[in-house]
Specification:
With 491 residues, the protein is of the alpha+beta class. The protein has 3 domains: 39-48 and 153-379, no CATH class; 54-150, no CATH class; 399-489, Macroglobulin (MG2) domain (Immunoglobulin-like), CATH 2.60.40.1930. It is built from 7 helices and 30 strands. The chain has helices at residues 28-31, 154-163, 198-201, 212-219, 259-276, 300-312, 319-335, and strands spanning 2-4, 33-34, 54-62, 69-75, 81-84, 90-94, 99-107, 112-119, 126-131, 137-140, 144-150, 180-182, 187-190, 193-196, 205-209, 220-221, 226-227, 246-248, 287-288, 342-344, 350-351, 355-356, 363-364, 399-401, 412-419, 423-431, 436-446, 449-456, 463-473, 480-489. The strands form 10 sheets. A 5-stranded antiparallel β-sheet has the order 1-11-3-8-5, with no helix packed on it.
Length: 491
């Protein structure tokens, strides 16, 4: 499919649907179209590039024959397509699309007809044209021509929601650090920076997806063709029996196959896209309406918050609640899903709505809360560092280390580091002479995400110490990373 830069692409036809009996007549919001995605529709690996794939054109032809005619023949030097030829009902092509004949409608002398079509990237030219059996007229360049782009895919939305601030610090589907947060994160404010709270992270777990590649890896394991289809549940433990604690940077179905996680992550994409104006605004403020359901009368973005709490506080909720909440989120994600159509794709991505609110009986207009709008902001850290190679996304460095805190310290300090993939980790502390003074971890297997170890220097002399972190990949790749940091003990 093609979409134009200069003009909006045709909108999709609305899906059929009935307004529930007894409901009020649709208002402005009820007739507005919305747009959502389901997990399957965000699995495209590569975004469609904004490369010109052709031109759109239109040309007007005037019947100057002095007679009533019923057909028009147009010849082009290169193959083209004719897409709109009203009022003619019939169209035929020859010579691989270089000759087109529209017919079946009578035109009186002086009548005009405008033909629309698509042609090559360098532009479209008419070689000659004539009505009926009249002599041919000389060719010309159609005056209304504009470049065309291909239709975007789910990867474009996934990438641009991250890259343009959908999960910027302070966004509704994030926190003060930024990135999509699935679950409830625990932070503390230290030295004018927000950091992971070490005490709470020893008790609870959550997921922070910083880049679109993290979301793709979390939703789908392409090697095994596996998506999340497991029972909805909280972040109590991984499928291998280990407890789910601290922050992790992705949650593939091999770690914990949890349908609620995947559906909630996609709901957050839908909410953020609406707030950015990439899809019609106001999705997050719509009200869920299902009599007898505990989530009834909540806004869509409030349901997202309920899902976050249930995932992190996993021992509080009964199992059937997880199934119910996941069912509601699935319904919302699918309410306005459908084929992609664009309002714009040149300078910015704007997708058109799929169906009106009046066609979805379990969502209603919210007249009390205006749509939340998030300004688009370039988020370089949310862009995948390199292009995908052979369908695989680039893998970042395995370790990202924050400065130990406090520093200087007496007598203990916390070394916080982040793994971008599961790894076997060794941490050793040395003095300035290179002598090892303490081993904090010795080939300890750790999942990806935020980890923290304590260094207790009781009984040691004041001075500068070095800590060395070595991580070896546990995911079947011959990869390793080493980081060395400096810390100061002051008595």
């Amino acid at each position: 499919m093609l979409c134009g830069i200069a003009a909006a692409a045709p909108r999709s036809l609305p899906a059929s649907g009935n307004v529930p009996a007894g409901s009020a007549a649709p208002g402005l919001s009820d007739t507005a179209r919305y747009r959502t995605f389901i997990p399957d529709s965000l699995l495209d690996v590569r975004p469609v590039r904004r490369l010109n794939v052709g031109t759109g054109w239109s040309a007007t032809f005037v019947n100057t024959t002095g007679e009533v005619v019923s057909d028009l023949t147009i010849t082009f030097p290169e193959p083209v397509r004719i897409t709109f030829f009203n009022p003619f009902p019939d169209v035929l092509q020859a010579d691989d699309g270089r000759i087109w004949v529209v017919s079946g409608q009578s035109l009186a002398p002086g009548d005009r007809v405008t033909i629309h079509g698509t042609g090559p990237v360098k532009g479209t030219r008419v070689t000659e044209w004539h009505f009926g059996n009249a002599p041919s007229n000389p060719g010309f360049l159609p005056p209304d021509q504009h470049l065309l782009l291909p239709m975007p895919n789910g990867a474009n939305l996934r990438s641009e929601v991250f890259a343009q601030g959908g999960f910027a610090p302070g966004a509704t589907e994030s926190d003060r650090i930024g990135g999509m947060v699935v679950g409830k994160s625990f932070l503390r404010y230290v030295n004018f920076h927000w950091r992971i709270d070490p005490d709470s992270s020893r008790l609870h777990g959550w997921v922070r997806l910083r880049r679109p590649g993290d979301l793709l890896r979390s939703l789908y394991n392409r090697r095994l063709n596996l998506m999340h289809n497991g029972t909805p549940r909280g972040f109590c433990g991984y499928d291998n029996g280990r407890p789910f604690l601290r922050q992790v940077n992705n949650l593939t179905p091999l770690k914990q196959n949890n349908r609620l996680f995947a559906d909630l992550a996609v709901l957050k994409v839908n909410i953020a896209a609406s707030q950015l104006g990439m899809t019609p605004p106001g999705l997050g403020e719509l009200l869920y309406n299902e009599p007898g359901n505990p989530l009834s009368s909540l806004m869509v973005r409030e349901i997202s918050q309920v899902g976050d709490s249930m995932l992190t506080y996993c021992g509080v909720w009964p199992p059937e609640m997880y199934v119910m909440v996941d069912s509601v989120i699935q319904k919302i994600n699918g309410a306005f899903s459908g084929p992609i159509d664009t309002v714009a794709f040149g300078d910015s991505l704007v997708l058109s709505g799929v169906r009106p609110l009046s066609a979805v009986p379990f969502l209603t207009e919210n007249t009390l809360v205006p749509p939340l709008r998030t300004p688009r902001t370039a988020m370089q850290e949310a862009v995948d560092d390199e292009e995908e190679i052979d369908g695989e996304e680039a893998v970042p460095e395995m370790i990202q280390v924050a400065q130990n805190f406090p520093n200087p310290f007496n007598p203990s300090t916390a070394i916080q580091f982040e793994l971008h993939e599961a790894a076997t980790v060794t941490i050793r502390v040395y003095d300035l002479l290179g002598r090892e003074v303490q081993t904090l971890l010795d080939r300890e297997p750790l999942f990806d995400g935020t980890n923290e170890v304590m260094f207790d220097a009781s009984g040691m002399a004041s001075g500068v110490y070095l800590y060395r972190i070595m991580a070896e990949s546990a995911e079947g790749q011959a990869r390793s990373s080493v980081f060395t940091g400096k810390m100061i003990l002051v008595r």
